[in-house]
Amino acid sequence: MKKKKNRTTTRQRDSAKLVVMQIDRADAVMKSAKKNGFISATLPKFIGESEWDKSKHILVDRLSSTDLDFINSYFIACEQLEESRSIVVNLEAEQLNEKARCIQRVLSTKVASEIEKNSPTDETMNNLFSFSDQLRNFYINPDYGQYSPNYQKLFFAQVLNENDTNIKGTTAYKALRAIAEMS
After folding, report:
1. Around 120, how many Cα atoms within 13 Å sit in the side-chain half-sphere?
2. 125, 110 in Cβ contact below 8 A?
3. How far apart are CA 7 and CA 115, in angstroms?
């Protein structure tokens, strides 16, 4: 009995196209992050809703188990990178909020001190304006305390190095492109 050749259905082709497009987008974001050396709030999401999770059951009979495992691992790595990006974005927001709270504390203490010393006069107001110059310097050169912005680089490098995110050029990626008729 002759083995029947697998034909790609329209549904498989369309699903594979969506997966390939998502891989290409995630790869572009990863290259940008690697080039910059860190994750920041301006970095686009690595991956949104996973097309792979929605489509792998459609593609299962067209890919080898090795290719399926490799692609699955790739999308897990993308999800971990996205979670890392989200954590860093939240840390940046919290750091900015803490900086604002520190500035408000220093400013309110200075204003209260000046008002206690004198009734609001032109001299008091001039002292406050010179203080605003000091405050501007404080904002530009903040004391981060225990927090180090290098954490972003270290965190990203750790997550990136723990995961194999190089999929282009692999047999799994080529197989997906073939199913998608994007060769």
Report:
1. 5
2. no
3. 83
- Nearest one of 90, 76, 86 to 162, comparing CA atoms: 76
For 10, the token pair is: 């329209």
Residue written as token pair 């390939």: 20
Nearest to 152 by CA among 44, 45, 32, 33: 33
- The pLDDT tens digits for 113-170 are 766 666 666 665 566 556 666 666 655 555 544 445 566 566 666 666 666 578 888 9
pLDDT confidence tier of residue 81, bands split at 50, 70 and 90: confident
Residue that is written with structure tokens 């692609």 in the block: 71
Query: Quick one: pLDDT at residue 122?
Result: 60
**Whether the predicted model's global pTM rises above the 0.85 cut:** no
Q: How far apart are CA 54 and CA 19, in angstroms?
A: 9
Residue 5 burial by Cβ neighbours in a 10 Å radius (0-12, 13-18, 19+)? exposed
